[in-house]
Every structure is written in structure tokens, then in C-alpha cells.
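Inverse folding, one chain.
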């Protein structure tokens, strides 16, 4: 009879289970990698195909570019100060939003109570039959005129800066020549200065005088353009004041209610006239004063160069006709000192001074914003043109104001969102914005 070993089946099952568990443990790494691959593929769908990078925060800016920040996460989960390279990326990223906020605020200014809406409302108060499209076109043209004038001033100051730098470079070599002449003139046995040498230096000085004159002429053209704008806006201002005065004069012969209406409209005209004075004419005068301040010393320098060239032309004639003539050393010394003084002033303006560079930067900014204002007004004008087609006078103005107010509301909402983003990054990375 066959004997049965008790417990054999239990041992067999235990061995099988151990082998199965061992097999699972051996396959663990393959299963883990397969699951991780699935996670990575899913993440890539939302991450725009970008690879995961350890301890790096990535964001997308308004232009579709990316911002990488090496967060340097410590073991306790805190974030260390980003590197200077990352800080610069953060500042550029935030700066893009801040620039957009400024540009949208300028659009609101151009469209709002101090811009197009103010003009439309004033026309509506008059009760005149004016077309909103024409009024908005006129406002856009005025912004374009401001942009053109500001761009002209920017070009003039850039040319002025380049002219000063060229003067500095040229005067350095002329001063070197004058020093050599002084040594030769003081030496009894020194080599006599020739008319050809004098003619060469005179030609350099005349070239610099001509360049200075070009810079002066360009600033004069810019000043003339600003004066033309002031004359235009002052005409508008005076017209408003005349209307206000006529309404006040008429009020004396009207009923009390009619007189009060006249006085209210007269006050509106006077307020608008004051706004034109404060926000336009006075600002244009600042541009003129700035150009005059830069132009005045350049005119003095140019006058000195003309005197030098004229004197040196006389020297050429004397050296050519009189073999015993010698250039007066005192005059050469005077010219050298004048050129040295001009170099000192011009270096102070463009090398050590910051005002000119700041003015150039500011003008570039305002030229861009004035152009944006003109573009914004024309865009609004065209967007409401079809909707308001066939609506004459006051009705078309009312519709235009409503449409523009809707755009202003959208701009304010975007500004609020962008301000939240700016605040978030400034609070998260304060060290990058420490002055």
C-alpha cells in the first residue's frame, strides 16, 4: 500500500507562492518604468512637449516665450534665491506684463474722458449734428501729429548725441596737432609750420562746424513743428473760451433756467480749454525748452569753430605769401584750450551725464505710446462705424461712447489680471527685485 506524505501539498503551494512573488519583484523595475512612461506622455500633452527638469519652474509669457527659473529647492521644501541669470529672466518676464499694463493704460487715456469720449461728450452737449466717425478721425490725427513731432525730437537728440561724440573724437586729434605746433613755435630751431598743415586742420574744423550746424538745423525744425502744434491747440483753446464768453454774455438776456444751462455749458468749455493748456500746450512747451537748452551751447561751440576756421584761413594766406610769417603761439594755445573746454562739456553731456540718455529713452517711449493712441482710436472708430452706420448726429455719438466704454472696461479687466501676475512674481521672488 502506497504511503501519503502529509503536508506535501502545503509545502508545494508555499514554494509556488514564493517563486511568484520573486518573479513580481524581479519585474518591478519594468512595471515602474512603464507606469512612469505613461505619466510622462500624459504630462507632455499639457506641457507642450517640454521635458521635465528637476527644480525648474517654467512659465509662458505673453509672447509665447518661456521662463525657466532654477528654484533650488532645499530638503525642507523651501526655495533658495534664484541665480542672477534666472533673476534676469524673471525681471524680463514681469517687465513684459508691466509694459503691457502701461500701454493699456495709455490706450484708456487716449479713449477716455481726457481723449475721445471727452470730445464726443462735449459735442453732444453742444447739441450739434456732428458725425462720431469724423470726430474720432480728428482725434487720431492729433495723436499721430504728436507722435510725428516727438519722433522728430528723438531723431534730433540722437543726431545731437552722435555729433557730440564725433566732435570729441576729432578734437582730440586736433589738440594733439596744436600741442605739436606749440612745441615747434617755442623752439627757435623748430620746423616752420606750413600752409598745407594749417589747411588740413582748418578742413577738419570746418567739417565739425558743418556737422554742428546740421544738428542745430534739425533741432530748429523740431522746434518749429512743436510751435505749429502749440498754435493749433491754442486756436482750439481760444475757440472754446470765445464760446464760453458768448454763452455767459447771452445768459443775461435769458430766463433763469436757460441762463443756468448756458453757464453750465460755458463752464464745460472753460474746463476743456484749461485741460488743453495743462495737458497739451504746456507739455509741448517742455519739448521746445529741452531742445533750446541743448541747442544753445552747441551754437556757441559752432561760433568758436567758425572763428578758428576764419583765422586759420588768414594764416594760410600769410604763410603762402610771407616766408618770414610765423603763427602766433598765443592764438594756437587759445584754440587748443577752447577745444579742450568743448570736449569737457560734451563728455559731461554724453559720457558722465545721464540726462540726455534719459531724455532719449523717454522720447522713444512717448513716441511709441502716441502712435499706439492713434492706432487705438482708429481701431475703435472702425469697429463702431458699421454698427453706427446711418445714425446721424447725437445718436451716433451716444453709440460710439457706449462702444468705447465697453473697450475701456475690457482693458481694465486685462490690467487687473496682469497686475495680479506681476504681484505674484514680485512676492515669490523678492530678491530679484531688490534695488
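Residues assigned per position:
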Amino acid at each position: 500500500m502506497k504511503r501519503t506524505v502529509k503536508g506535501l501539498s502545503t509545502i508545494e503551494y508555499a514554494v509556488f507562492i514564493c517563486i511568484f512573488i520573486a518573479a513580481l519583484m524581479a519585474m518591478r523595475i519594468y512595471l515602474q518604468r512603464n507606469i512612469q512612461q505613461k505619466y510622462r506622455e500624459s504630462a507632455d500633452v499639457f506641457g507642450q512637449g517640454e521635458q521635465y527638469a528637476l527644480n525648474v519652474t517654467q512659465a509662458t509669457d505673453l509672447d509665447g516665450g518661456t521662463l525657466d527659473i532654477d528654484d533650488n529647492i532645499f530638503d525642507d521644501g523651501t526655495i533658495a534665491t534664484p541665480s542672477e541669470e534666472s533673476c534676469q529672466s524673471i525681471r524680463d518676464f514681469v517687465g513684459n506684463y508691466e509694459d503691457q499694463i502701461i500701454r493699456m493704460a495709455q490706450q484708456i487715456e487716449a479713449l477716455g474722458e481726457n481723449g475721445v469720449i471727452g470730445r464726443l461728450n462735449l459735442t453732444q452737449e453742444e447739441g450739434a449734428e456732428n458725425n462720431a466717425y469724423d470726430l474720432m478721425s480728428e482725434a487720431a490725427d492729433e495723436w499721430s501729429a504728436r507722435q510725428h513731432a516727438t519722433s522728430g525730437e528723438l531723431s534730433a537728440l540722437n543726431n545731437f548725441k552722435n555729433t557730440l561724440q564725433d566732435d570729441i573724437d576729432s578734437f582730440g586729434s586736433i589738440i594733439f596737432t596744436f600741442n605739436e605746433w606749440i612745441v615747434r613755435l617755442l623752439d627757435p630751431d623748430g620746423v616752420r609750420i606750413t600752409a598745407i598743415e594749417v589747411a588740413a586742420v582748418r578742413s577738419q574744423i570746418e567739417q565739425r562746424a558743418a556737422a554742428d550746424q546740421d544738428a542745430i538745423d534739425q533741432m530748429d525744425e523740431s522746434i518749429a513743428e512743436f510751435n505749429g502744434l502749440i498754435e493749433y491747440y491754442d486756436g482750439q483753446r481760444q475757440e472754446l473760451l470765445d464760446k464760453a464768453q458768448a454763452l455767459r454774455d447771452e445768459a443775461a438776456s435769458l430766463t433763469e433756467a436757460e441762463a443756468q444751462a448756458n453757464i453750465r455749458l460755458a463752464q464745460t468749455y472753460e474746463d476743456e480749454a484749461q485741460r488743453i493748456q495743462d495737458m497739451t500746450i504746456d507739455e509741448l512747451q517742455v519739448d521746445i525748452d529741452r531742445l533750446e537748452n541743448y541747442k544753445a551751447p552747441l551754437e556757441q561751440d559752432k561760433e568758436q569753430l567758425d572763428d578758428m576756421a576764419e583765422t586759420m584761413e588768414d594764416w594760410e594766406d600769410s604763410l603762402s605769401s610771407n616766408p618770414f610769417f610765423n603763427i602766433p603761439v598765443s592764438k594756437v594755445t587759445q584754440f587748443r584750450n577752447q577745444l579742450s573746454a568743448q570736449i569737457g562739456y560734451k563728455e559731461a553731456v554724453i559720457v558722465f551725464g545721464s540726462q540726455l540718455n534719459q531724455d532719449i529713452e523717454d522720447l522713444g517711449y512717448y513716441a511709441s505710446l502716441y502712435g499706439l493712441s492713434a492706432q487705438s482710436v482708429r481701431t475703435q472708430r472702425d469697429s463702431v462705424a458699421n454698427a453706427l452706420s446711418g445714425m446721424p448726429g447725437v445718436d451716433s455719438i451716444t453709440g460710439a461712447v457706449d462702444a468705447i466704454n465697453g473697450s475701456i472696461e475690457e482693458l481694465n479687466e486685462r490690467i487687473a489680471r496682469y497686475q495680479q501676475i506681476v504681484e505674484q512674481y514680485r512676492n515669490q521672488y523678492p530678491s530679484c527685485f531688490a534695488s
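Residues 256 and 262 are 10 Å apart (CA to CA). The chain has nine helices and two strands.
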